[in-house]
Amino acid sequence: MLLLITPARNEAAHIVRTARAVQAQTRPPDLWLVVDDGSDDETPELLRRLDAEIPFLRVLAAPPGHTKTGRDRLALAAEARAFNWALSQVELDGYTHIGKLDADIELPPRYFELLLERLDGEPALGIAGGMLLEPDGGGWRRERVPQYHVRGALKLYTRACFDAIGGIDERLGWDTIDETYARLHGFQTRSFGDIVARHHRPEATADGALRGRARHGQCAYILHYGLPWVALRSVKEAAYKPVGLTGAAFLYGYVRSAVRREPRVEDEAFKRLVRRELRDRLRPAHLLGWASGRSSRPSEAFVGRMSAIDTNVSS
Question: What is the pTM of this model?
Fold first, then answer.
């Protein structure tokens, strides 16, 4: 059985499209909880209408004051808090899979059917998801993420994996912390390139592009990413608009967090795994193709390895 949870705040522009895509699934969720987290637009009214039309949809309203308030809701992990609150409102016995879906994602019709088939076919696979198309001018561009990373916007967990990692952490970086802990517990994590959804809000636009990049840097510090990786990542970030400033914002977010000595994931096993994985991703063999001039731009593999962090900046 599949339980799907969608936190939503001020998603009037997207929630109907998202709901219709979930309604049209060849394998719909058995229960879909959409939790309105203090919206002050038309989202609650739209959800009431959808609730009357979609039999497996249940609309919830987070209690007043449940989510921390502030300009940067992503840094406050407001979405993770709303997800966990919704999770606490249902008895989990019988559910074999738990999914999280952002309220601005348009899924292809066979999304859950295909992912459930692959999770069932690979017992070691604990977290899975598809890839995202992001708006790009008048068209769409495919987001580049490494295969082992699953965007926080559309995650699907097996119940065994979800229980093993203790659910999701209510802190910035939860959507990288969860998959790191999954691998620490022996599970695999994977995004499938042949399952593609549309993300109707451009990446890092919820609170501004530069703030989103700085948040990436802050997340890198929290997760114990080392300075060599951060320096390389800042070069990659600098290629995004506004060119140069995005890389500086990423580095600023990391350094600011270090100066402030912000709380990090204090788990020695977690830290050892992060450092080992970063060493693997920075092996010279992975970088020589670009540095030797055999290509005028980084390889696809290099670009993927440099995109390991997902702080859900697009929500």
Answer: 0.84
Amino acid at 139: G
CB 188 within 8 A of CB 160: no
Q: Which long-range contacts (CB under 8 A, 24 or more apart) does 87-92 make?
A: 87/5, 87/167, 89/33, 89/60, 90/3, 90/31, 90/33, 92/3, 92/159
Domain boundaries, the chain: 2-199, 209-305
The yes-or-no verdict on residue 129 having pLDDT over 50 is yes
Give the DSSP H/E element, type plus range, for residue 263.
none
Please provide the DSSP assignment of 32-79 as one string: EEEEE-S--SSHHHHHHHHHHH-TTEEEEEPPTT-SPPSS-TTTTTHH
Place of tokens 């705040």: 9
Percent helix, strand and coil across the chain, each rounded to 5? 40, 20, 40
Cβ atoms within 10 A of the Cβ of 92, count? 13
Question: Do 118 and 144 meet the contact criterion of CB atoms below 8 Å apart?
Answer: no
Closest CA to 178 of 204, 206, 150, 154: 150
Is the CB of residue 135 less than 8 Å from the CB of residue 189? no
What percent of the chain shows pLDDT beyond 70?
84
> Among residues 20, 108, 107, which one has the least CA distance to residue 57?
20
Start-to-end C-alpha separation, the chain: 26
DSSP H/E element including 163: helix 159-165
Cα separation of 139 and 212, whole Å? Answer: 22
Q: Alpha-carbon Rg of the chain, whole angstroms?
A: 19
pLDDT in tens, 105-122: 999 999 999 999 999 999
Domain 2-199: CATH superfamily, name plus number: Spore Coat Polysaccharide Biosynthesis Protein SpsA; Chain A (3.90.550.10)
